[in-house]
Amino acid sequence: MGDLTVDAPHIEIDRLTKRFGAFTAVDDLSFTVHPGEVLGFLGPNGAGKSTTMKMLAGFVTPSAGTARIMGDDVAERPVQARRHLGYLPEGAPTYPEMTVTGFLLFAARARGYRGTEAGDRVHNAMRMTQLEEVRLQPIETLSKGFKRRVGLAQALLHDPPVLVLDEPTDGLDPNQKHEVRNLIARMAPEKAILISTHILEEVGAICTRAIVIARGRIVADATPAALAARGPDLDTVFRELTQEAA
Ligand SMILES: Nc1ncnc2c1ncn2[C@@H]1O[C@H](COP(=O)(O)OP(=O)(O)OP(=O)(O)O)[C@@H](O)[C@H]1O
């Protein structure tokens, strides 16, 4: 780890910027996430949420600014930073022809686990995300909700202190949404969790704090209750905040 002290945030984003040609997708973004926080990352389509998360996960190189996980700069110390991170990307997991077990074992081995430990890690991650019934099915044959949960299981394999989850409940049915929200709530006390979502009710249900971004910039950073109190309901507040910035 880097120069991490006891009270240091697990995620530190400082003046993070991503430009694609002349277009600025993420514009001078700064925030921190401490253990025990579930930070909801909200914004309209194209606001820059996924790009920010990809930079945190080391999949996109920042144009300027820094992102640190447990004190490690993701650009300068990517291996150390990723060791402490579980990342659920948007969309479905790669390797569609692999079975669920095969893919998760592959991911566990890539993380350095061998033998029974790899098997135990996979078993535990499948249990947490309720994948046992489809464990021998190729990923490409799964429904959208199950594919999402395979991605989530992969992010949880190494029980990381930091989770970055890009729309974790996208495509899940109401029961599955409920299960995943409960899982996040159970893990929350020990971890720093950043989740992006379009579902505003989710923010009230599981997030301790919410950041709203529009056009790559922060337009609000508050508790869900404080945000909702700014108007008749969270929906209206979200629309007003993100339309003002457009
Ligand atoms: N590789 C790329 N090249 C050019 N533009 C890109 C690239 N990746 C993202 N963008 C643009 O950056 C902006 C932010 O995209 P991003 O996916 O981060 O938004 P988002 O907030 O996650 O949106 P959504 O809610 O739809 O997932 C969009 O206008 C997108 O088209």
Query: What's the architecture of the largest domain in CATH terms?
Result: 3-Layer(aba) Sandwich
Number of helices: 9
Number of strands: 10
From the alpha carbons, calculate the radius of gyration and give it in angstroms: 18 Å
Report mean pLDDT, rounded to a whole number.
92
Summarize the main sheet. 6 strands, mixed
User: SSE string, helix = H, strand = E?
Assistant: EEEHEEHEHHHEHEHEEHH
Give the strand content: 15-25%
Please characterize this protein's 3D structure.
This protein is of the alpha/beta class. It has 2 domains: 1-8 and 27-84 and 161-246, P-loop containing nucleotide triphosphate hydrolases (Rossmann fold, 3-Layer(aba) Sandwich); 92-159, no CATH class. 36% of the residues lie in helices and 24% in strands. The protein has helices at residues 49-56, 78-83, 100-110, 115-128, 144-156, 174-187, 200-206, 224-228, 234-244; strands at 11-20, 23-33, 38-42, 64-69, 72-73, 85-88, 162-166, 192-196, 209-214, 217-222. Strands 6-7-8-3-9-10 form a 6-stranded mixed β-sheet, with helices on both faces. A 4-stranded antiparallel β-sheet has the order 2-1-4-5. 41% of the residues are buried. The model has no long low-confidence stretch (mean pLDDT 92). The structure holds adenosine-5'-triphosphate. Belongs to the ABC transporter superfamily.
